[in-house]
């Protein structure tokens, strides 16, 4: 069965307007699309194309490493859900045989040399990285994109607050310690006979 899905795009130029009516209108549009569609694309988001390209290139390099190099960073060896997940290492839908992708999870970390400035907790704590000698520039490229995406999220929060009829600064004191987890994912091409119980990722909610 084919479904006609309304995927809407929201332009963030109005978010920085000094006219509160323009910000209010954009917030109302976001509220509408969140309620009636569930998600939306953003344009004019401010993330430089080179930052995105750098992260994609770094991800491709990582997933091209030998398996034994990647499994040294196995996510099951860490207490805080950071690191590498092997092909079929997750099974989102118990009716399936496993998720046909590899992954690499990371959380907030300073771009500086000090890699210990994190709080303890299930979704925080130290990231794990391949040696710089194996993948020069990998950590920096990935973290630059992570920080750009977190900044975009912070930029959206005043609009979310307005959409909920709250003061624009309502979330300011609630997002001082980012708990966002970012995932690099690789979905291998499927050729030949395809098992319908082995798909990229099983049905799930976020």
Automatic annotation (TrEMBL):
Pfam families membership: DIOX_N
Keywords associated with the record: Iron, Metal-binding, Oxidoreductase
Record bears the keyword Amino-acid biosynthesis: no
Gene3D superfamilies: B-lactam Antibiotic, Isopenicillin N Synthase, Chain (2.60.120.330)
Residues spanning the membrane: none
Coiled coil stretches, renumbered: none
InterPro entries given in the database record: DIOX_N, IPNS-like_sf
Keyword Oxidoreductase on entry: yes
UniProt GO molecular function: metal ion binding; oxidoreductase activity
Source organism, top-level taxon: Eukaryota
Protein's UniProt name: Non-haem dioxygenase N-terminal domain-containing protein
């Amino acid at each position: 069965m084919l479904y006609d899905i309304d995927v809407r795009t929201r332009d963030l130029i109005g978010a920085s307007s000094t006219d509160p009516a323009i910000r209010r209108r954009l917030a109302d549009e976001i509220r509408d699309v969140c309620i009636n569609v569930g998600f939306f694309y953003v344009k004019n988001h401010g993330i430089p194309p080179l930052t995105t390209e750098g992260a994609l290139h770094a991800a491709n390099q990582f997933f091209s490493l030998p398996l034994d190099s990647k499994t040294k960073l196995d996510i099951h060896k860490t207490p805080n859900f950071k690191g590498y997940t092997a092909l079929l290492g997750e099974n989102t839908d118990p009716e399936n045989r496993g998720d046909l992708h590899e992954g690499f999870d990371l959380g907030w970390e300073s771009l500086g040399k000090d890699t210990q400035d994190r709080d303890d907790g299930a979704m925080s704590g130290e990231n794990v990285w391949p040696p710089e000698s194996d993948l020069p520039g990998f950590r920096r490229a990935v973290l630059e994109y992570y920080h750009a995406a977190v900044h975009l999220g912070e930029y959206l929060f005043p609009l979310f607050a307005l959409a909920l009829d709250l003061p624009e600064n309502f979330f300011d004191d609630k997002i001082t310690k980012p708990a966002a987890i970012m995932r690099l994912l690789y979905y291998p091409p499927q050729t030949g006979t395809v098992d319908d119980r082995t798909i990229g990722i099983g049905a799930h909610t976020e």
